[in-house]
Each structure stands twice: as C-alpha cells, then as structure tokens.
Amino acid sequence: MDRFRRNFLNQLGAAGALAVGMITGLLRSGKALAVEWNKTAFDSTTLAEALKNMAGVGATESKDILIKAPDHAENGAVVQIEVTSNIQGTTSLVLLIEKNPRPLLADLAFSNGAESYTFLRAKFAETSRIRVLARAGGKTYFATKEVSVTTSGC
C-alpha cells in the first residue's frame, strides 16, 4: 500500500509541475516552437523553381561552404551528406539535389552563434549535383558537389 501511495504522489507532483510550466509559458507545445515552412519551395519540381522560391537566385559562389559526400554512391537510396559553413554569421543552410523529383532537401535555420553544420542522409534519383545555399549577413552564397549514382534511390 505504501508503494502505491508513493507512486501516486510522485505522478501527482510531476503533473502539477507540468501544469504550472504550461500555465506560466515556460513550456510550449512543439507546434508553438515550430518555424513556418516554405511549402511552395518544397513542392517545387525543378531546381530553378526551388531556387526562386528559396530566394537563391543570384547567389555568390563560396569556397567557405564545405560539402562532404561520396564522389560515387553505389546505392542512391542512402547517400550521406555532411555540410559545414565557415562563413561568419551563417543563419541558414539550404540543401538541394538538382535532378531529384523534388530538388529541395532541407532548409535549416541556425540561432545566433550556433555552429552551421549538418549531417543527413538523402535519396538521389540519378547522378546529380548537391547545391548548398548559405545565408549570412543578408547575402546568399553557394557551393556544389557532384555525386555519381549507380542505382537510383527514388
């Protein structure tokens, strides 16, 4: 009986703390913290359309964006991509795969002072270039890397 009472009081205390956190605004639902996403850009079917919807037209090429991906991927279903931007004050990274049915792969935002780095796995429909856009100081920069794919992943 003592164990039941102890568990009940622990759960009641946790529920009370959770309620206080939500009422005071210290805790918010995931939806409240989520950033609005650019549906038109993610629904784009061509690279030019995706770049236009991401405001990536007219970007300047930069050697400070490092893309680490295999030169040859045996299976296009799982290709590992690692991106680091060494551009000071990078606020976002956008990854696109040029020949995929939906070229826009990711749109990542970084808080002030956060390291602009990402590691992800992507599907490639065919041999294609990865294009990475980095935004910093109101300007947009880009870098590309070709990945040769043996077997389609899309």
What does this entry look like structurally?
The protein is α+β, with helices and mostly antiparallel strands and 154 residues long. It has two domains: 2-31; 36-151, SoxY domain (Immunoglobulin-like), CATH 2.60.40.2470. Helices cover 25% and strands 38% of the residues. The chain contains four helices and nine strands. It has helices at 2-24, 30-33, 39-42, 47-53; strands at residues 60-61, 65-68, 72-75, 79-85, 90-97, 104-109, 117-122, 128-136, 139-151. Strands 1, 3, 5, 6, 8 and 9 form a six-stranded mixed β-sheet that branches. A three-stranded antiparallel β-sheet has the order 2-4-7, with no helix packed on it. A hairpin with a 6-residue loop joins strand 5 and strand 6. It starts with a helix and ends with a strand. The model has no long low-confidence stretch (mean pLDDT 84).
Which key terms come to mind for this protein?
single chain; 6-stranded mixed sheet; 9 strands; alpha+beta; 3-stranded antiparallel sheet; 2 domains
